[in-house]
Amino acid sequence: MLKTLANSCVFLSIFLAGIVYYVCFYITCSDNVARDFPPQQPLQGVAPIQENSLQDIIQILDDAEGECHWDEGDWVWDESYPLYESRNCEFLDQAFRCSENGRPNNSYSKWRWQPKNCNIPRFDAVTMLEKLRNRRLVFVGDSMGRNQWQSLLCMLSSAIAEKDSIYEVNGNKITKHTGFLIFKFKSYNCTVEYYRSPFLVMQGQLPSGAPEKVEMLLKLDVMDSSFVQWRDADILIFNTGYWWNHCKIKKRGCYFQIGDNVKTDMSIESAYRKSIETLFLWLSKEVNSSKTVIFRTYAPAHYRDRESVRHCHLKMKPEISSSLMLSSPSWAYLMNPIIELPSAIDSELFSWEIMNVTQMTALRPDGHPSIYYLGATAGPAPLKEQDCRHWCLPGIPDAWNELLYARILTGYLL
């Protein structure tokens, strides 16, 4: 009997020890998960966002020191995101379909942007489509503008049951080589359009007698010829920056022209500033105050130390603060002209807005396709060939479009 009792005590001790171990393990793991992917937490003093509610669209804190800062804030974990699934949207490039291309987690799509001192409304596709009724919304820029354009198509189409009522007006399919694409939402008689113009100014023919090293010219004082197609749009959203670097310009034998003069010694920074000046001068003459003009700022890549080190595939969550921002003074030449030049242009007819997404985007190294851009059957790309510049969809460009939506609802635009 004593032996049986002893065996029972040993068994009970082992059982209790197991329970203690399990509880400790659960608490520890739960704590780690919470740190990596925290649940949605509203900012102190800011009421949680009510889904599909337009009441108090923008709530400025009574004790806030200043106005709502759209471009300052934090990425907050939100289980109700994403706003759509890539498999349910036919308007995406294959390269942006990260989850379908084999990315093993979708945590990058579950972070919501929380601006400082205020809330923004949750995107409501029907409300946005009503705002766009009988209007043209146009994106003009590089492939990051294409990223945002496709994001908005997916966000809007989520409210349309009859997908056949959304179509490309010229019957073209979405390919990255198409110069422009115009999608119409028939029920609302509105179009959401994209025009590829990576420099925003004209790529010109070589003049006779051009230096031998010149293989391509950018006419810095002439707008891209595509402007005739989108000049009358109701909402114009511009972006550029990705192509304004040594690899995309000088390595390709690209130089600059102003008037009849080829500028072989002009810096990329000076050329970029001149192109932005050309854009603003053109807008001041060609676009009146009844139109909405937005410049969406540079969306940073995350190649880290240098472009040859293409490592972003191990990033699984946002950064708390961006050392990348602090270590990238070269961004100043992309940002300063956008801020400085409009005030120097004297025109009562010209008004526009900056959509500054640079800082909020710099915090998201986890949002790139990295090695998951080749397609569902091709498998991951080699580690040395990662895409750390474009964005998975759903993902970060959705947040840019939520900022656009908030501005429209609050009367900032339209």
From TrEMBL:
<keyword id="KW-0472">Membrane</keyword>
<dbReference type="GO" id="GO:0016020">
    <property type="term" value="C:membrane"/>
</dbReference>
<feature type="domain" description="Trichome birefringence-like C-terminal">
    <location>
        <begin position="120"/>
        <end position="406"/>
    </location>
</feature>
<keyword id="KW-0812">Transmembrane</keyword>
<dbReference type="Pfam" id="PF14416">
    <property type="entry name" value="PMR5N"/>
</dbReference>
<dbReference type="Pfam" id="PF13839">
    <property type="entry name" value="PC-Esterase"/>
</dbReference>
<dbReference type="InterPro" id="IPR029962">
    <property type="entry name" value="TBL"/>
</dbReference>
<protein>
    <submittedName>
        <fullName>Protein trichome birefringence-like protein 11</fullName>
    </submittedName>
</protein>
<dbReference type="GO" id="GO:0016413">
    <property type="term" value="F:O-acetyltransferase activity"/>
</dbReference>
<dbReference type="InterPro" id="IPR025846">
    <property type="entry name" value="TBL_N"/>
</dbReference>
<keyword id="KW-0735">Signal-anchor</keyword>
<feature type="transmembrane region" description="Helical">
    <location>
        <begin position="9"/>
        <end position="28"/>
    </location>
</feature>
<keyword id="KW-1133">Transmembrane helix</keyword>
<dbReference type="GO" id="GO:0005794">
    <property type="term" value="C:Golgi apparatus"/>
</dbReference>
<feature type="domain" description="Trichome birefringence-like N-terminal">
    <location>
        <begin position="67"/>
        <end position="119"/>
    </location>
</feature>
<comment type="similarity">
    <text>Belongs to the PC-esterase family. TBL subfamily.</text>
</comment>
<dbReference type="InterPro" id="IPR026057">
    <property type="entry name" value="TBL_C"/>
</dbReference>
